[in-house]
Automatic annotation (TrEMBL):
Residues 116-180 form the Beta-ketoacyl-[acyl-carrier-protein] synthase III N-terminal domain. It comes from Saccharothrix australiensis. This is 3-oxoacyl-[acyl-carrier-protein] synthase-3. The lineage of its organism: Bacteria, Bacillati, Actinomycetota, Actinomycetes, Pseudonocardiales. One of its GO terms (molecular function) is 3-oxoacyl-[acyl-carrier-protein] synthase activity. Keywords: Acyltransferase, Cytoplasm, Fatty acid biosynthesis, Fatty acid metabolism, Lipid biosynthesis, Lipid metabolism, Transferase.
Length: 338
């Protein structure tokens, strides 16, 4: 009698490479404030954001995802034909089918890869990274491309003072592959459906289709409510992610949270009690809030600049739901990443 399956021996997983695509157009606070009731000084004081990137007509969500994915593959030294799967995390997809991940795989020439999309708002990348790591460890894939890609300008009202200055466009990607040692820690995640209307769409597509005279669907946010929830819930959960990896905060090389705004990042860094040697990503200052793309974009900037190229990084995403997900992962610039 057969008592077990002949499955591949489990492996460890790690991030092998990272890539990014930042849209060409740089948008200043002055330009954003020309379309809403605010001032550049208020925007920078409130969010820390000085500039952000807005995608042009040719910089579609898929085009940016393909560019970021190609950069990550090059960085990892992995050919498109070696990919077993592509996972795209995004909250700004306006086309329901086919999955964006399938189109990204085709755009890269990854003819052997499966593909699927994942939607978890600003926590999407960390959820997708957890899925990719589990696939490699279980033996169901050897190389997985994880992409966070957003065109947030497609789902915001440029006159809405609560969100128009904050959100932006871009794509970041990582290649996850086998490792001789553990290099992606257990994910810590939770969803609080009781706070689902703190960050939501003002109108559903069903409602807009039934009555086109309504406001077009756009995101709405209760900023104070989201801030309080993040401060109360994210820091304790992030500490659990560090502990789950068998580390303390003093062992970290970097903290790469979702790039919501600098006030939130600074509060979280303080609540975590990070020592001075831990590099804290603040890509939001020049890139804005790119939702599911923000963590890989910030990681890419840290690695490329040399600010943090080796060691464990605490990644933590949080956003609409409200929900969060995070884990500790070894940065792709260190030994064992190739």
């Amino acid at each position: 009698m057969i008592e077990q399956l002949a499955v591949p021996r489990p492996e460890h997983a790690r991030i092998l490479g990272v890539g990014a695509y930042r849209p060409r157009r740089v948008v200043t606070n002055e330009e954003v404030c020309a379309r809403m009731d605010s001032t550049p000084e208020w925007v920078e004081t409130r969010s820390g954001i000085r500039t952000r990137r807005f995608a042009g007509d040719d910089e579609t969500l898929c085009a940016m995802a393909v560019a970021a994915g190609r950069a990550a593959l090059d960085d990892a030294g992995v050919a498109p034909g070696q990919l077993d799967c592509v996972v795209v995390a995004s909250m700004s997809v306006l086309v329901q089918t086919p999955p964006r991940a399938v189109l990204v795989a085709a755009g890269l020439g990854a003819s052997a890869a499966a593909g699927f999309d994942l939607s978890a708002a600003c926590a999407g990348f960390c959820h997708a990274l957890a899925v990719a790591g589990d696939m490699v460890r279980a033996g169901s894939a050897r190389h997985v491309l994880v992409v966070g890609a957003e065109r947030m300008t497609d789902i915001i009202d440029p006159a809405d003072r609560s969100v128009a200055f904050m959100f932006a466009d871009g794509a970041g990607a990582v290649v996850v592959g086998p490792s001789p040692v553990p290099a992606i820690g257990p994910v810590v995640r939770w969803a609080d459906g009781g706070e689902r209307d703190a960050l939501r769409m003002n109108t559903t597509w069903d409602e807009f289709r039934a009555d086109p005279s309504r406001e077009p669907p756009a995101m709405r946010m209760d900023g104070r409510r989201v801030f309080r929830w993040v401060v109360e819930n994210v820091a304790p959960a992030a500490l659990k992610a560090v502990e789950a990896a068998g580390l303390s905060v003093g062992d970290l090389a970097a903290f790469i949270p979702h790039q919501a705004n600098t006030r939130m990042i600074d509060v979280l860094a303080d609540r975590l009690g990070l020592p001075g040697h831990v590099v804290v990503a603040r890509d939001v200052v020049s890139a804005g809030n790119t939702s599911a793309a923000s963590i890989p974009l910030a990681m890419e900037r840290l690695v490329r600049s040399g600010a943090a190229v080796d060691g464990p990084a605490l990644l933590f995403g949080f956003g609409a739901g409200l929900n969060y997900a995070g884990q500790v992962a070894m940065l792709p610039g260190g030994p064992g990443a190739r």
